[in-house]
Amino acid sequence: MDLAFTPEEQQFREEVRAWVRANLPQDIAHKVHNALHLTRDDMQRWARILGKKGWLGYGWPKQFGGPGWTAVQKHLFEEEAALAGAPRIVPFGPVMVAPVIMAFGSPEQQKRFLPGIASGEVWWSQGYSEPGSGSDLASLKTRAERRGDKYIVNGQKTWTTLAQYGEWIFCLVRTSTEGKPQTGISFLLIDMKSPGVTVRPIIMLDGGHEVNEVFFDNVEVPAENLIGEENKGWTYAKHLLSHERTNIADVNRAKRELERLKRIARSEGVYTDQRFRDEIAKLEVDIVALEMLVLRVLSAEKSGKNPLDIAGLLKIKGSEIQQRYSELMMLAAGPYALPFIREAMEAGYQGDYVGAATLAPLAATYFNMRKTTIYGGSNEVQRNIVAQTVLG
Amino acid sequence: MDLAFTPEEQQFREEVRAWVRANLPQDIAHKVHNALHLTRDDMQRWARILGKKGWLGYGWPKQFGGPGWTAVQKHLFEEEAALAGAPRIVPFGPVMVAPVIMAFGSPEQQKRFLPGIASGEVWWSQGYSEPGSGSDLASLKTRAERRGDKYIVNGQKTWTTLAQYGEWIFCLVRTSTEGKPQTGISFLLIDMKSPGVTVRPIIMLDGGHEVNEVFFDNVEVPAENLIGEENKGWTYAKHLLSHERTNIADVNRAKRELERLKRIARSEGVYTDQRFRDEIAKLEVDIVALEMLVLRVLSAEKSGKNPLDIAGLLKIKGSEIQQRYSELMMLAAGPYALPFIREAMEAGYQGDYVGAATLAPLAATYFNMRKTTIYGGSNEVQRNIVAQTVLG
Amino acid sequence: MDFNFSDEQEQLRDAVRKWVDRSYTFERRQGIAKAGGFDRSAYNELAELGLTGLYVPEDHGGMGMGPVEAMVVLEELGRGIVLEPLGATLVASGVIAAYAPEALKSQWLPKIASGEALVVLAYQERKARYRLDVCEATATQAGSGWKLSGEKSLVPAGDQADAFLVPAKANGKIALFLVERNAQGVSTRGYPTMDEARAAEVKFQDAAATLVTADGLAALQHAVDVGIACTCAEGVGVIDRTMELTAEYMNTRKQFGVTLATFQALRHRMADMKMQQELARSMSYYASLKLNAPVEERLRAMARAKYQLGVAMRFVGQNSVQLHGGIGVTDEYVGSHYFKKLTALELVYGDTLHHLGEVSQRMQDTAGVFA
Amino acid sequence: MDFNFSDEQEQLRDAVRKWVDRSYTFERRQGIAKAGGFDRSAYNELAELGLTGLYVPEDHGGMGMGPVEAMVVLEELGRGIVLEPLGATLVASGVIAAYAPEALKSQWLPKIASGEALVVLAYQERKARYRLDVCEATATQAGSGWKLSGEKSLVPAGDQADAFLVPAKANGKIALFLVERNAQGVSTRGYPTMDEARAAEVKFQDAAATLVTADGLAALQHAVDVGIACTCAEGVGVIDRTMELTAEYMNTRKQFGVTLATFQALRHRMADMKMQQELARSMSYYASLKLNAPVEERLRAMARAKYQLGVAMRFVGQNSVQLHGGIGVTDEYVGSHYFKKLTALELVYGDTLHHLGEVSQRMQDTAGVFA
């Protein structure tokens, strides 16, 4: 048992740190450190920089052009990127669809799709959720009917994150209504420029445009865009979910945001107020405990024995911590969290702030963070899963 | 809308207060104020004093010899008794079985049983719970078979509070196995001196003997001891449960115990520690809010309109508050809550205390209070009930 | 001890509820929100109902009602998440009626009652957080009147108001003044707030001011306590409607073939929310009924009430969103606006930690409603 | 970064678990509890396993092991709610090994390792609560030795111990001394504790004392930190077994015709308990792995760990009782004794609020495991 990273891991961390600090554009880091609005260009710029270095697909094996890092190395990269103020990698291409294409796609599909993902050129979206499905994902209804060498897709996806920028979308579609709901689902890649695809924004309670509805109206999809076999899509999607997911806890971002919380508390004069400071202290312990949990998972992965079955715990605690720091930032601002000036949440705003510039986005972030206990399998679903591990 | 009691109610309160303070034995009040062990004699002495005044059955209507008080008067009596340090009235006779006898018993039964209850002479126990039943009370199995003018009772009750002192016990027994479980239950009064009745103590985690198992082995019970009709016992028991139950919240005792908590916190030096004091402050708000809830119920009862369906809330919050003050008292003692000297929890202990006499019973009380969220319908069952009122 | 509403109070409630249901629809509300968060014609409709004059004595053209009536009205406005700040009007008119010299009363109260003048308290300063005794604004005598200088923040509908009640230091002691928005040296900068209502930063530079009372701190404490009682009542209304929306959704939305209301874990969450709802209502009653109590008792009661409401509003708001799932975080869904209102109400007139501090500091040996 | 136990550590764990399962049955434990809460022969069995010498260097007859081995052992003793205070022995032997002069080491460490001598820290004073710098006991030089006077509370197995490590003020500064129980002027008063173990009040009146170290506060802080790490590990063991018992009960006990494990609200409670279990284990690892860190880092880490353990032990303990229902509050049921142990462990070496204060005070700009 040893808490310290190995000298090799330490050296790796320092190399990554140096590279990130040298290559992360300052203006982007500034936005991240101050929770200002990130544009498509911001995200894409960073993705391309990573892509050029070969680190956008930082979880990929070498055979597909990835760096072939260990679980610990991936964690160290994530931590260094987060602490430096890098935006989170938009996961739909490199983290979500790419592993499925690698595992179940044909060599042609791999050759066709992976380069654009690795370089950050092609923006992917995820088409899983539907209006009626929610936590019950397998109840999805979007149909894909095979007609010759094409599928005709009809239906609707929702909560499609950043689909307004999407060029391709990977979808779970229903190709059969026989048997259990899970057995009639296929995994299809769809070009979003195809006729019949419509994206409609969903405005969130914080006023932001982050998710969308995506409608499919007789959309023609070449059969060659089917991943693996028809009606086996559920298996592929589950493979994706079962993937190593310590990143779900987002503990590195939490560490960065805890620092921001302390800065805000200090400037608002509550850092020395014992009552408020205690709340930060509790959060700090939570974050250390979560980080220990993450490290335990990494250690188990590294040694290849005793895999820890605690992904549910990571999701629950990670999301609760995200909500809590955003809540405490808002409470640190107190009455000055009330003003809600959307322009003041953009970088380069020239107008007057109320109170201080740092306070402008706090309420919006708090509102936005309510999603974290809902998406990616709500925390209620996670509790079901955790209980299963304890009670059978 | 008016928060103040009416002048008549105020005057009533003062009369009750004067009488209680004049008639409550000092040694008993001392024990109550310091959470020392109450003996059978302590409880019985106070019951007889109340009985003589006609106030043991303080909730009884005049026709049965009660004072015929309003809901508010009953509340004021409870409050004055609690604040003065009176022991809680052992409820099984005057509060639980008496109303059933009044509502469903025959005139003969009323004449036979009520006087002994009203005077405090006869100690009653309650035989509802069984080892297998728990929250699922209707699954009870104790059988009563009719043979001529007798019932033969076989089975086992459990969690029978203070049954070691019991002279009579009112039981729910199964007289039929047909239909729904609820429909085959009868309400039977059993003389605990009958051959075949055995009481076995259950020692609780605090080391106290408060509850028992009661075994019935071919116990002969005269048929005249059946209340109402055979197989209708569930209805009678439910009538009892639906009775006005603001006392379930025990808010008056909570107010007294909050004062004790403050005394202990002061003497242990944590009353001025903001961190600890805040916990007391939160509890104080909880108690005020609970008292307001109780007053709202009383007001609704008084006016006879809009009855408030919040008994479940009273039970949940009341029991949580009981647990919380006992927890905070223990935490106020800190390391000095560790010594667990049973003799030091008795009045008149002549040995040395560890730390201070006030601290001796705190851990035991904390342990004991764990029962409050379990008994009388666990808080989980209460939440089911509350949810029903909101969601149907 | 009686918590029943009188017939008159029930009629008042009905009238306000009818107005909300018929005239202040969600569509209209969102229109007002998009247009800036305050609509004078909607405010005038409140005036037509007599509500702006609720705290104005009858001889000044108002209804001369008390805290219970105010509570009833605010509950209903909370149910409708009405943007126009009637509570602010009650605060201002209450303070003027209680503290202002007769001339000032005669000049302003009738106009407040009729809705002609919107007068609001402008007390928040950047360095004060929730403390009332921190005040950097100053006033100096100038002839028969006063000149006031300073900056006040987060003034409700501050760029729409006709006059402000402003605490400022005069001869080293906080006094309360009235300043008209059109007076020279007054400038405002309006903006929307998180609950889609409106507020403003207000600057005073040697602005002409009229003295309301030299005992400014007492008046300010009183004003804030009226504000707390109003906020508690409004919070109860928002909670009530939130609970209805959530129950409705849970009984409709299906997952895994059954309604959400089928899942015990979610039912228990609803039970916990119901607890907070009823504790909040209880403490809102308590606040309104203690508003005329002696000062120390009143301050203690308001801190207790606002603390409890803070806890309840946050719990109910957050869990309502959670129980709704995705739909609960969309702008389109009415419920998310209730959540935002609950969040905002926690932050006005002292947040939950602030009032915990107040309760803690004001704690006495005996406790309870009547202590 | 590696959280795997070595083969030797796993063997140590197996050995201790076997002893608990076979030799320290619940019946035996309850017999010891009824007889006073400490059994020398059980303690000697721990010594035979080598455990009393775990922190004693090999050249003094011990095993010379480290914090991780101590953690493994304490987890297992926690699983068995073993009454004999091995943690106290580790605290004393750790401090002697780190701070005592060679002569004292040679005299005591072999006897501690063999179990011949039980040495415990006697530091708690009535006025100190959890503060280590409050010390009224005094020591004065007397010839080549010292005389120590004072009263120490809550000394683990204090009336059974052979010697005490006692902080006392010498020349105004806290120093640490060793005092034998049989020395003149030493009197003890033993009693059971809430977890059915044993403690004592110990009085020293001009008792002969040997100086362990003049830097008493540093040694005491170190001792308490060893104690915290032991307590965290023990707590994890108690929690683990509590969780097993609870899961077992929920899968057996039927209500309304189905097992308790069927009810979603109860399942979610178990999920929340599982969360606390894993957070507690994580922070116990953290505590043990930080035990040799630089002082400030160590103090901060121990406060964080004990705070988290306090939260977890209370939550798991209380909810385990609740999920059991009636049976959970009986003396007869094994689970209720785990609850009592969890309660007691929260109160030693600083309770949850105390350590929250420590965390709060020691907070720095950057956070995280390595900060």
UniProtKB/TrEMBL annotation, chains A, B:
Domain Acyl-CoA dehydrogenase/oxidase N-terminal: from-to ranges? 6-121
InterPro entries xref list: Acyl-CoA_Oxase/DH_mid-dom, Acyl-CoA_Oxase/DH_mid-dom_sf, AcylCo_DH-like_C, AcylCo_DH/oxidase_C, AcylCoA_DH/ox_N, AcylCoA_DH/ox_N_sf, AcylCoA_DH/oxidase_NM_dom_sf, Mycobact_Acyl-CoA_DH
- Cofactors that this protein relies on: FAD
Q: Which domain of life is it from?
A: Bacteria
> Can you give the residue ranges of the Acyl-CoA oxidase/dehydrogenase middle domain?
127-219
Q: What are the coiled-coil residue ranges?
A: 241-268
What GO molecular function terms would the record report? flavin adenine dinucleotide binding; oxidoreductase activity, acting on the CH-CH group of donors
- Extract the Pfam families matched here: Acyl-CoA_dh_1, Acyl-CoA_dh_M, Acyl-CoA_dh_N
Q: Which GO terms describe its cellular component?
A: plasma membrane
Could you list this entry's UniProt keywords, alphabetically sorted: Coiled coil, FAD, Flavoprotein, Oxidoreductase
All residue ranges annotated as the Acyl-CoA dehydrogenase/oxidase C-terminal domain in the record: 231-390
Record's family? Answer: Belongs to the acyl-CoA dehydrogenase family.
Q: Write down what this protein is called.
A: Acyl-CoA dehydrogenase family protein
Source organism (scientific name): Ramlibacter ginsenosidimutans
TrEMBL record, chains C, D:
In this chain the Acyl-CoA dehydrogenase/oxidase N-terminal domain maps to: 6-116
Q: Which GO molecular-function terms appear in the entry?
A: acyl-CoA dehydrogenase activity; flavin adenine dinucleotide binding
Q: Where are the transmembrane segments?
A: none
The Acyl-CoA oxidase/dehydrogenase middle domain sits at 125-206
Q: Which InterPro entries does the entry mention?
A: Acyl-CoA_Oxase/DH_mid-dom (IPR006091), Acyl-CoA_Oxase/DH_mid-dom_sf (IPR046373), AcylCo_DH-like_C (IPR036250), AcylCo_DH/oxidase_C (IPR009075), AcylCoA_DH/ox_N (IPR013786), AcylCoA_DH/ox_N_sf (IPR037069), AcylCoA_DH/oxidase_NM_dom_sf (IPR009100)
The UniProt record lists the keyword Flavoprotein: yes
- Cofactor dependency: FAD
Q: Which UniProt keywords apply?
A: FAD, Flavoprotein, Oxidoreductase
Residues in Acyl-CoA dehydrogenase/oxidase C-terminal domain copies: 215-362
Provide the coiled-coil residue spans. none
Q: Which family does it belong to?
A: Belongs to the acyl-CoA dehydrogenase family.
The protein's name is Acyl-CoA dehydrogenase family protein
Organism, as annotated: Ramlibacter ginsenosidimutans
